[in-house]
Amino acid sequence: MLSEDIRTRIAAFGAKLSPYMRFLGPQYLGPKRLAALAGALAALAHPPFGFLPGLFGYGLLLYVLNSDLGPKPLKRAFAVGFWAGFVYFLISCFWVAEAFLVDAETFGWMAPFAVMILPAMIAFFWGLFGAVYARFAPKSGVKSLLCFAVWFCGFEMIRGWIFTGFPWNPAGASWEAGSAMSQMAAVVGVYGLSLITVMAFASIAIIKPALGLKGYRPVMVAAGALGVCFAFGQYRLISTQITPSETSVRLVQTNIGQEAKWTESEFSRIVRDYVAMTRAAPKYAKWSAQGADYGRRPDIVIWPEGALPASAEELFSASSWTSEVFARLLEADQTLMMGVYRSDLDKSGNMVWRNTMLVIQQKAHETRIVAAYDKFKLVPFGEFLPFENLLARIGLKNLVNIGDGFTPGDRTKAMSVDGLPAFLPLICYEGLFPALDQSNYSFGKKDNRPEWIVNISNDAWFGPTSGPVQHLNLSAYRAIEQGLPMVRSTPTGISVVIDPLGRVIPSTKLGTGHSGYIDVMIPKVVKLTAHGKFHVIYVTFISIFCLILLPYNTLLRPVKKTS
């Protein structure tokens, strides 16, 4: 036992400390402030911050929702969810201001509004979740944890789908792509991994110390589940052999910022830089097949989205000097993939603009455009203006000022081009979306399964923020989910080759602000993943489960007896 003297000293120290400790009291850290803290902690778990203890923020959010929220619990619960989501997305998406500052004279006034409005719009889904939880869920026990995790992830799936979707930083993507924990995405996808993550770290909110060891069972089960996931991931990383294919690719990154002034002299310099790096001597990454011919020119050259500040019509017009450049650019049987914007006719015969990936080949001494993919998922406010009739009246407009904005193409699917392994094209923002390709190689049919993913992006919009790092991490999850390698090209970084386990191939990374090129043998595919086969079933199952839990908890609520 402590002596009387020691107890007196501790009491005196506590008395001195008490004024400062008031800031931890309910009057200072009420539900909204605790919710904001929960959102901040959860956001800091994502790369590049990597503060994984922040995942306990989900436990703090559950604790707040289970506490006494006063006489208007639904309203308070909505506010709790909203403020948690607002801070979460404020930290996750502050890079959006950079896009408006590229042309500060025209769009700079919109930056503060964008920084606040975007998190507020997305946080609305977290607020709805909070209200649904307060209305239907029990306030303690394992059932409350189950409802919290399932409904939270259900609303996250809705966020990634409704109004074109914005699936930035789901909880499962807190784990760095390519890590042991991230490998569970090959089985259940990033949303399934989100469910596991949220349920595991929120379990601390339902601890009952009064029950002794029994009261800690939820946390012990959660720790065991995380351990199983980690062991599975480690086994997959160790047991899966990644080998190079026979197809080589060159990534070209010229470090052209979005703020560059598109004068004629600047345009000529940009073209010269791309041409010089395309024709340069081979420079292969150390990772390659043993005995490979390091003197061979690459089979495929990839330029990023928006590589050149001109339309396809201008670049390939017979009267344009650039048409001659492209005619002499490639060697025999060589392929160029590049991002460009172009005009097109829609199904009604109206002229529209597309954000396109062109596939250009040199065949029989002739340069030809052999294939084109038009971007399916467009960036709201960047490439098109949602609710245009309303927002245009207050002066809002697209960041990409081309016509009335871009028009989406057909749904993303694998493409086959003579002389190339079949590939899945993803342009920029599309790398965020799980299962964007819904071709029939799902359910084990391999007849048209792509052999690699081509992801061209214009991360120059992000500037030197956390945006490029998070964008890369989110895109790399598509490689894990499908068991496919990904080749990613951007104008300013991060350009990289990712293996089918989501890991960056050594010596293939061109970071933010770097200029250069790298040649690499594309990795071979691995076995079709469970998520690749059954992602439609997973989504359907989770959706049905969310709906079932609502009436289940309502019907089982005890009826209050009246005297």
Entry summary:
With 563 residues, this protein is an alpha/beta fold. It has 16 helices and ten strands.
How do the helices and strands line up, and which of them pair or pack?
Blueprint lengths: L3 H18 L9 H13 L13 H10 L6 H20 L3 H6 L2 H4 L3 H26 L4 H19 L25 H18 L14 H23 L4 E10 L10 H16 L20 E3 L9 H5 L4 H7 L7 E11 L5 E13 L2 E9 L13 H4 L31 E5 L24 E5 L10 H16 L3 E4 L6 E3 L17 E8 L6 H27 L7
Membrane topology: Multi-pass membrane protein
Protein name: Apolipoprotein N-acyltransferase
Family: Belongs to the CN hydrolase family. Apolipoprotein N-acyltransferase subfamily.
Q: Could you walk me through the main structural features you see in this protein, from its secondary elements to its overall organization?
A:
The chain is of the alpha/beta class and 563 residues long. It is built from 16 helices and 10 strands. The strands form 2 sheets. Strands 5-4-3-2-1-10 form a 6-stranded mixed beta sheet, covered by helices on one side. Strands 6-7-8-9 form a 4-stranded mixed beta sheet, covered by helices on one side. Strand 1, helix 11 and strand 2 form a beta-alpha-beta unit. Helix 4 runs antiparallel to helix 7, helix 8 packs across helix 9 and helix 9 runs parallel beside helix 16. 43% of the residues are buried. The C terminus is likely disordered.
